[in-house]
Design brief:
Strand content: under 5%
Radius of gyration: 16 Å
Helix content: over 70%
Number of strands: 0
Distance between the termini: 10 Å
Structural class: mainly alpha
Length: 164
Amino acid sequence: MIEQLLIFFSDLVQNPQLATFLLAMLPITELRIALPWGITIGGLEWQSAYFLAIAGNYVIALLILWFLEPGSRWLRRWRIWDRFFLWLFARTRRKGKLIERFEFWGLVLFVGIPLPITGAWTGCAAAFVFGLSNRKSMLAILLGLFMSATIVLTLTATGLFLFL
């Protein structure tokens, strides 16, 4: 599925900077895929791909942080959305023990370790579920994105990160 998405982006967006930024905004790819894509397929210099991937992932994280609470409250008026948010928040509580225990630094590590189910999207949900302030969450997520991008960049540069 990711390979098909990357081909779609390559064909749709002829601008590798824009493609890297947009890939970083998506929940499945985030910067874990956007950064290596920008370097290997997009042909970007590592510095450019690094900052575009962080920026794209951070922009969407800010939007999620600011709109998750009012948006979920509004959508939960309908049963299907209420069930979705109950599932999402229960799942986040189960996966977010690190954040629950260490709060700010737990969120930094949660976002910063580039594994499946971690990242800015899930980190935003966890910050909301565990009651972290938006201001602290924004900083923790940004620090986590720099950490994650550095790990992914290192793995990409050494040839250890293969996403296709």
